[in-house]
Automatic annotation (TrEMBL):
Signal peptide: none annotated. This is L-fucose-proton symporter. Keywords: Cell membrane, Membrane, Transmembrane, Transmembrane helix. Residues 22-416 form the Major facilitator superfamily (MFS) profile domain. It is a multi-pass membrane protein. One of its GO terms (molecular function) is fucose:proton symporter activity. The keyword Transmembrane helix applies. The keyword Cell inner membrane does not apply.
Length: 416
C-alpha cells in the first residue's frame, strides 16, 4: 500500500491509485452512480405516486421514509457483514438486495398497493445502504491513504452523475405520460424490471472480478504521518468527538437533502407554474449543479481546507433557503437550483472528516455514518406537512440542518 520514504529523503507525491486496483476501482465507482440514480428516482416516484395513487404530499413522503429508513436498519448489519466476509461480498449482498427490491415493484404495481411499494422500496433501500456502507471504505483502501479523500470525492462525482440521470429517466418514463385521474402503473413496473435486470448483470460480472489482496491501511499503524492511523488505539469509537459530530452532521445533511429533493417538482409546479415534466427537466439541471459543485469543490479544496469550505457552503445554503421561502419567482427558483450546488460537497466531506484517524474503528464508523442517512427518512414528513399549506414556507426548515453542518465544519470536525 503506502510506501513512505525514509526520513530525510524527498517525499514522492502519493499516486491516485495503483494499476492492480484499476478494474476494481471502475466497478466500485460505478456503484456510486447506480445508487445516485435510485435515490433521485425516488423523488420522481414521490410526485408520480401523488398522481396515480391519489396521495397527499405528507403521504408521498413515505417514499423517502422507506428508502432512507432502510439505511438506519441496515447500517450496522452491513458493516458487520463487510467485516466478516470482506468488501467484495458486501458489494454482492448490496447489489442482490437492490435487484430484489426493484423486481418487487412488479407485484406492487399489479396490486396497486402503496404499502407493497413501501416494502419494495425498503428492500431496495437496504441494498443501497449496504453498497454505501461498503463502497466508501472500499474506495479508500484502493491505494495510498494520502489520496483516499481524492478517490472518495472522485467516486462521489459519479454519484452526482447518477443523480442527474435519475430524474431524467424518471421524468421520461413516469411523468411524461401522466394523465389526470390515471391509475396506470405499467410504466413503473417496466422501469423497475429494467433497473433490476441491469443491477443483476452488474452483480454477475462483479462476481468474476478478482480483487487484489488488501492490507487495510486503516488498521495497520505503520507511520504517524499516514492518514487515518489511530493515534490512540485504546480509545473507544464513541470517544472520538469528531466522529460523533460527523454522524450528527450527516443526519441533518441527508435530512435537508431528502426534504429539498422530495418537493423540488412540487415547488416548480406550484410556484413557477411549470408542468410536472418541465419541473422534472429542471431537476436534471438541479442535479447537474450538484455535479458541478463537486468538481468546483474538489478544486477549491486545494486552496481551502475541506472543513472550512464545508462551513462556507453551509452558510451559503442558509441564505439560499431564506430566498427560496420568499416566493420571489425566478430569484427564488434560482436559489433553489443553487441549493444543490452548495450541497454538493457535504456528504463526501462529512464522511471523510468523520473517518479521520480512526484506525481499526474505520469500518464500524462507516456503518454509523451511513446510519445517519436516516435523517432523510423523517425530515420529508415535516416538510410535507408544511408544504400542504405552502411549499415555499417548507424551505425554512432546512435552515436548522445547514446550521448544524456549519458548526461541524467550523469547529467540531477537529480530531482530538
Amino acid at each position: 500500500m503506502s510506501h513512505l520514504p525514509e526520513q530525510g529523503a524527498a517525499k514522492i507525491p502519493a499516486t491516485f491509485t495503483e494499476k492492480k486496483y484499476l478494474v476494481t476501482l471502475v466497478f466500485v465507482t460505478s456503484l456510486f452512480m447506480f445508487w445516485g440514480i435510485a435515490i433521485t428516482m425516488g423523488d420522481v416516484l414521490n410526485k408520480h405516486f401523488q398522481h396515480v395513487l391519489s396521495l397527499s404530499k405528507t403521504q408521498s413522503a413515505f417514499v423517502q421514509f422507506a428508502i432512507f429508513g432502510a439505511y438506519f436498519v441496515m447500517g450496522i448489519p452491513a458493516g458487520l457483514f463487510m467485516k466478516r466476509f470482506g468488501y467484495k461480498n458486501g458489494v454482492l449482498l448490496g447489489l442482490s438486495l437492490f435487484a430484489l427490491g426493484s423486481f418487487l415493484f412488479v407485484p406492487a404495481a399489479n396490486t396497486a398497493s402503496f404499502g407493497f411499494f413501501g416494502i419494495a422500496l425498503f428492500i431496495l433501500g437496504c441494498g443501497l445502504s449496504t453498497l454505501e456502507t461498503v463502497a466508501h471504505p472500499f474506495v479508500a483502501s484502493l491505494g495510498n491513504q494520502q489520496t483516499s479523500d481524492q478517490r472518495i470525492n472522485f467516486a462521489q462525482a459519479f454519484n452526482a452523475l447518477g443523480a442527474i440521470m435519475g430524474p431524467a429517466i424518471g421524468s421520461y418514463f413516469l411523468l411524461r405520460n401522466n394523465v389526470q385521474g390515471s391509475t396506470d402503473l405499467t410504466s413503473v413496473k417496466l422501469l423497475y424490471i429494467a433497473i433490476g435486470s441491469v443491477i443483476s448483470l452488474i452483480a454477475f460480472c462483479f462476481s468474476f472480478v478478482k480483487v487484489p489482496a488488501l492490507t487495510d491501511p486503516h488498521v495497520t499503524g505503520a507511520n504517524p504521518d499516514a492518514v487515518n492511523i489511530d493515534m490512540e488505539p485504546g480509545k473507544k469509537l464513541i470517544h472520538h468527538r469528531h466522529f460523533v459530530w460527523s454522524v450528527i452532521a450527516q443526519f441533518f445533511n441527508v435530512a435537508a437533502q431528502g426534504g429539498t429533493w422530495a418537493f423540488f417538482i412540487n415547488y416548480g409546479h406550484e410556484k413557477m407554474g411549470f408542468t410536472d415534466v418541465v419541473a422534472g427537466n429542471y431537476m436534471i439541471i438541479f442535479m447537474a449543479l450538484m455535479l458541478a459543485g463537486r468538481f468546483v469543490g474538489t478544486f477549491l479544496m486545494r486552496m481551502i481546507a475541506p472543513h472550512t469550505l464545508l462551513a462556507i457552503f453551509a452558510a451559503c445554503n442558509v441564505l439560499m433557503c431564506i430566498i427560496i421561502a420568499q416566493s420571489l419567482g425566478w430569484p427564488s427558483f434560482i436559489a433553489l437550483l443553487m441549493l444543490n450546488f452548495f450541497f454538493s460537497i457535504m456528504f463526501p466531506t462529512i464522511f471523510s472528516l468523520g473517518l479521520k484517524n480512526l484506525g481499526a474503528h474505520t469500518q464500524q464508523a462507516s456503518s454509523f455514518i451511513s446510519m445517519g442517512v436516516v435523517g432523510g427518512a423523517v425530515f420529508p414528513f415535516a416538510m410535507g406537512a408544511v408544504a400542504e399549506y405552502d411549499v415555499a414556507t417548507a424551505y425554512y426548515l432546512p435552515i436548522v440542518c445547514y446550521f448544524v453542518i456549519f458548526l461541524f465544519g467550523f469547529k467540531f470536525y477537529k480530531v482530538h
